[in-house]
Every structure is written in C-alpha cells, then in structure tokens.
C-alpha cells in the first residue's frame, strides 16, 4: 500500500479510482469527482506543511510533454509531481526529436520505454491525447487538447468553487467569452452539470457554438445566451475566458472595442452578480479585454487561488492515477 496523504487525513470515500487515463471530464461520475476533491483536500494540507513534500510517489516517473505553450499547467504539474516525490522529465516539442519529425506515437512509446509511468500532455490538436492513450501503457493526463478539453483545469476550478460555496448544487455559474475555442468551458460544463450547477454559456453569437449544449442525466441545466448583462444577474460564479486570438479565424468579432462593451467583466457588471460572487479566469489573461484591471485584482478575484489550487488538484490526480497502477 502507498503512504497516502489522503489516507493520513482521513479523506477516503469508498470509491476507488480505476481509470488508466484522464482525457476529459465528460464521463466522470459524481463519485469520481468527489474522490478527486477529497484527495485534493488532503494534498492541500500537505502543501501547507513547513516541508510541503511527501515520498508517496517515490519511484514513479512523470513526464510533461507539451506541444503548445503553457505556464500554469506545466509548472503546477511539475511542482505537484515533485511534492509527491516523483521523478520528472520535461519535454517540449521545440528542442525534442518532434522537431525532426518524430510522431506522437513514437514519442510516447519512447517515454514508456525509459520507464515513464504518467505522461501529462498538451497538444494543439483536439483528440491527440486519446490517440496517445491507445498506443502506450503509460497513463495519459490531458493537459489541454486543441479546442476540446482541459479536464485538470475544470477540476481545479471546481475545487476552488466548492472551497468557497460548500457545494455547487443549484448555484449559478456564468462562463463568458470565447466559448467556441474554449476547452476550459467544455470541461467545466461537464463537471458543473454533473454536480447540479446551473451553467450559462455566454458570448457574442459568433463565439458561441449552439451545438455545444451539454446535458447530464439528473444533473443541472445549461443555457446559452448572448446577453451578458442579463446572464450575470445574481450569478454565484463569473468565469471569464481568454480571447483566443491565435485560434480565431479573422472576423469573428467586429472589434475588441465592441467585445469589451458587451462582454468585459468590470466593476459595474460584477455588482449585478450575487453579493460576494466569485470571479474566476483560467489564465493567461488579456487584462483590459476579458476583465478590467480593477476587478482582475479586486477582492472578488479568485484567479491566484485557482493557480495555487492547481498544485493540490494535480497532486491528487497524479496520486490516484499512479496508485492505481501500483496497487
Ligand atoms: N489555464 C492554463 O491552462 O494555463 P496555461 O496555458 O498557462 O497552462
């Protein structure tokens, strides 16, 4: 048996983690999500110790394999793995044999051949982690694939919300911005609906895919609207998304000025939300576009907390996934 911080802090829930990979949140059950949150609570306690390190994953090798830029996801996974005593290998497409034409399949098989147990990967193509997972015995954690999914971001966002609200059941969460290109919005919608939240996806019509209206049997509701001033009324959580200029074809919004006029979260708009509403953003921010600087750094902003919680949640996921293969 592994020496688990979760067990030390008594957070076992009776549910066990059985998945080799974490590719999205769409198929996670309520019990699995609760297990991640409970385990992350134990990890947060570990992070608060004077020496924020345990040896739970000693002998485990974690590789980060990033084909696209990242600050938060890559850094927090590295800190998370090292906090659990794992060995870490960091690879980016630039500077690796990917530049010489090595395929994704050969790359993950190479990492497996050198003893890698868990590969955290980010790829600019939607679906790439699914392909990788089929061709390696190592576990794959999706650190963001194209416009499709970002499951660890959704779980750390949920952890942050639950820490403040107790539960998201019946709570109103408004996700505003470039929904069309947002893997964060998609993965968040699945976890939030599963736990009974009322989710509103809001943005300009050209950035709002009406075909993406997720439904979870027995879960909360999802609505789609272009009217942000109405959507934010009474919201418990307001999550602004980055305008993904690098993924947009030209001409999806008339101008940034018009976008700001209709969709920027500013002090005037935030006043319309529920008192003490949580203001969130997955980062990186285009400050002055999605959020006005005063609210981005104001009392309701949970943005830095999201980043810090990313370490605890990613420790939990590494632990659950690595422990499954070692038990
Ligand atoms: N939120 C997020 O995925 O940030 P990075 O791109 O910096 O990893």
From TrEMBL:
Function of the protein: Catalyzes the condensation of carbamoyl phosphate and aspartate to form carbamoyl aspartate and inorganic phosphate, the committed step in the de novo pyrimidine nucleotide biosynthesis pathway.
Keywords from the UniProt entry: Pyrimidine biosynthesis, Transferase
EC number in record: 2.1.3.2
GO terms of biological process kind: 'de novo' pyrimidine nucleobase biosynthetic process; 'de novo' UMP biosynthetic process; amino acid metabolic process
GO terms for cellular component: cytosol
Highest rank taxon of the organism: Bacteria
Family statement drawn from the similarity comment of this UniProt entry: Belongs to the aspartate/ornithine carbamoyltransferase superfamily. ATCase family.
Functional pathway: Pyrimidine metabolism; UMP biosynthesis via de novo pathway; (S)-dihydroorotate from bicarbonate: step 2/3
Residue ranges of domain Aspartate/ornithine carbamoyltransferase Asp/Orn-binding in the record: 170-320
Binding site for L-aspartate: 100, 183, 242
Reaction equation(s) it catalyzes: carbamoyl phosphate + L-aspartate = N-carbamoyl-L-aspartate + phosphate + H(+)
Protein name: Aspartate carbamoyltransferase
Subunit structure: Heterododecamer (2C3:3R2) of six catalytic PyrB chains organized as two trimers (C3), and six regulatory PyrI chains organized as three dimers (R2).
Record organism: Tepidiforma thermophila (strain KCTC 52669 / CGMCC 1.13589 / G233)
InterPro entries: Asp/Orn_carbamoyltranf_P-bd (IPR006132), Asp/Orn_carbamoylTrfase (IPR006130), Asp/Orn_carbamoylTrfase_sf (IPR036901), Asp_carbamoyltransf (IPR002082), Asp_carbamoyltransf_Asp/Orn-bd (IPR006131)
NCBIfam families: asp_carb_tr, PRK00856.1
Record-linked PROSITE patterns: CARBAMOYLTRANSFERASE
Enzyme class: transferase
Sequence positions that bind carbamoyl phosphate: 72-73, 122, 150, 153, 283-284
Cleaved signal peptide residues: none
HAMAP family assigned: Asp_carb_tr
Domain Aspartate/ornithine carbamoyltransferase carbamoyl-P binding stretches: 20-161
GO MF annotation, one: amino acid binding
